[in-house]
Amino acid sequence: MKQDMIVILDLGSTRNPELAREIRDLGVYSEIYPHDITVDELKALENVKGVVLNGGENRVVDGAPVDIDADLYGCGLPMMAVDHPGAKCELVYDALPEKEALKSFVFDTCKAEANWNMKNFIEDQVELIRRQVGEKKVLLALSGGVDSSVVAALLLKAIGSQLVCVHVNHGLMRKGESESVIEVFKNQLNANLVYVDATDRFLGKLEGVADPEQKRKIIGAEFIRVFEEEARKLDGIEFLGQGTIYPDIIESGTKTAKMVKSHHNVGGLPEDLQFELVEPLKQLFKDEVRACGIELGLPGGMVYRQPFPGPGLGVRCLGAITRDRLEAVREADAILREEFERAGLDKKVWQYFTVVPDFKSVGVKNNARCFEYPVIIRAVNTVDAMTATIEQLDWPVLLKITDRIMNEVANVNRVCYDLSPKPTATIEWE
Question: Where, by residue number, does ATP bind (predicted)?
Answer without folding.
Answer: 143-149
